[in-house]
């Protein structure tokens, strides 16, 4: 019925990064959709088993949990929720990227707002628009014209040396990388107009697979020295802190 949720977890040398935070969000998303709480011990065991069977230097674990009936990947009989854990190899993303803004809005007050559901078709369409323009991410405003997030990332801007990111009430996902970067750099949650992208000194994205990634072009605007000094520092802090603690 489409009532699915998911998580993408980075695995570094066979160890999942920030797994506790991902499992917390999985549970929150399940509750938001009215699915039974996932059995987190089972999810942890499944992740460990998949990682052990497929050693890759840098991996992306995809956890999908649905209310559906099919036995696919499930040992719960033919009626219960279904958990699938898959692993793909991935590579470190480039330090900078281009983004576009899209004319569609994120609904900051929808039933699914803030839940990591598998209903990502709108994101897929927006991402295709980005790819048409040589970019790797599309950024959404919300229904009141505030900056919100990307299709699979959160967005940060630097204004007068200070780092800002939209608050959760903008409709963005509570990104795990967003949270860690905000804690580790002191970034502030600020309501920002979408237009801030035209004047911000620096812009960067955060996500599980991008980590901290500087933006060197937004629509037609080139940001000459990306990553700028504040973004470069945030990247360094994130790399150091995340290397020191696998489950921060
Ligand atoms: N926003 C959306 C819509 C996402 O799908 C993701 C990716 O999971 C993020 C933001 C970034 O979140 P995280 O840092 O937890 O990967």
From TrEMBL:
GO MF term list: lyase activity
Keywords: Folate biosynthesis, Lyase, Pyridoxal phosphate
PROSITE patterns reported in the protein's UniProt record: AA_TRANSFER_CLASS_4
Cofactor annotation: pyridoxal 5'-phosphate
Catalytic activity: 4-amino-4-deoxychorismate = 4-aminobenzoate + pyruvate + H(+)
Pathways per UniProt: Cofactor biosynthesis; tetrahydrofolate biosynthesis; 4-aminobenzoate from chorismate: step 2/2
Gene3D superfamilies xref list: 3.30.470.10, D-amino Acid Aminotransferase, subunit A, domain 2
InterPro entries: Aminodeoxychorismate_lyase_IV, Aminotrans_IV, Aminotrans_IV_CS, Aminotransferase-like, BCAT-like_C, BCAT-like_N, Class-IV_PLP-Dep_Aminotrnsfr
Enzyme class of the recorded protein, top EC level: lyase
EC number: 4.1.3.38
Complex formation: Homodimer.
Family indicated by similarity: Belongs to the class-IV pyridoxal-phosphate-dependent aminotransferase family.
Protein name, as recorded: aminodeoxychorismate lyase
